[in-house]
Amino acid sequence: MSATTRTRTPGPRHYLMCRPTHFDVTYAINPWMDPAKPVDTGLAVAQWESLRDLYLSLGHTVEFIEPVPGLPDMVYAANGATVVDGKVLGARFRNAERAAEGPAYLDWFRDRGFEVHDPAHINEGEGDFLVTGRYVLAGHGFRSSRDGHAEAQEFFGRPVIGLELTDPAYYHLDTALAVLDDDEVMYNPAAFAPGSRAVLERLFPGAVLATPRDAAVFGLNAVSDGYHVVLPEAATGLAGQLRARGFHPIGAGLTELLKGGGSVKCCTLELRGPR
Fold first, then answer.
1. Which superkingdom is the protein from (predicted)?
2. Given this model, what pLDDT does residue 232 score?
3. 102-119 per-position pLDDT tens digit
4. Where do the structural domains in the chain lie, given as residue ranges?
């Protein structure tokens, strides 16, 4: 059955989120951050609440981790860990400004009885680890290390496919690629090294390809339940492509959180249970 005729079925998801109570841009560790631009924290909270309410309206389960003062980027929960088959690989951040987030997230999981692994190597959670039905796709080039990829493969027991990012505007894999279903993805070819593009073409020959315009509005920082695809509302071209393939795109407005270099997916950590 082709991608254009496949029947899409949403599946219930379990997410972890962190309210942006302390969100601000006081340092710059990616090209999207500019401390000179004012941030409206109240607007950031309101936009985040709309995303949370959307997930709940779609029937998904959402849990919350308490925000920590002094960690303005903790709202980007996807970076806090990677959860596969009920096992939690903690995050170890490259930048000192975010280093304390890793232990905070790991403590949340440990307190709830998850099997956790405190990583020895740099990985920034689902910022650079995206899970398909068969693989863990793993970004490197700006944040997570290749040693972290090997550590993830050993812990999860799943093939980890390394993909090199080359454009600093797309510094995490989840800014350049999104998983739509077990065996379908969408991505920005221009964000990857030639060899990594060739790997993606081989693994996902029918992938949705983002235009530079849709990539630039963080259209690939999206969350899918197999039918509903929540993505930045400005990514209208991607929305049209998704609709043509039987998905139901839903635009979200997270413009304030984009000032920190994150959008829908960055705010959403999926808690995948055992299969």
1. Bacteria
2. 98
3. 999 999 999 999 999 999
4. 14-270
Q: Looking up tokens 């440990």, which residue turns up?
A: 110
Q: Which residue is catalytic, options 117, 140, 172, 228?
A: 172
pLDDT (tens digit per residue) in 38-88: 999 999 999 999 999 999 999 999 999 999 999 999 999 999 999 999 999
Where on the phi/psi map is residue 85: left (φ > 0), alpha (ψ -120 to 50), or beta? Answer: left
**What is the rounded CA–CA span in Å between residue 46 and residue 51?**
9
**Which secondary structure element, helix H or strand E, spans residue 81, and what is its range?**
strand 81-84
User: CA 151 → CA 64, 70, 143, 146, distances in Å?
Assistant: 27, 29, 15, 9
Helix spans in the chain (H): 41-57, 101-111, 146-156, 194-203, 212-216, 236-244, 255-258
The CATH code that applies to domain 14-270 is 3.75.10.10
Q: Are 263 and 257 a contacting pair, CB within 8 Å?
A: yes
Indicate if 267 belongs to the active site. Answer: no
Q: How much is the pTM?
A: 0.96
- The verdict on whether 18 is a catalytic residue reads no
Side-chain-side CA neighbours of residue 141 (13 Å): 21
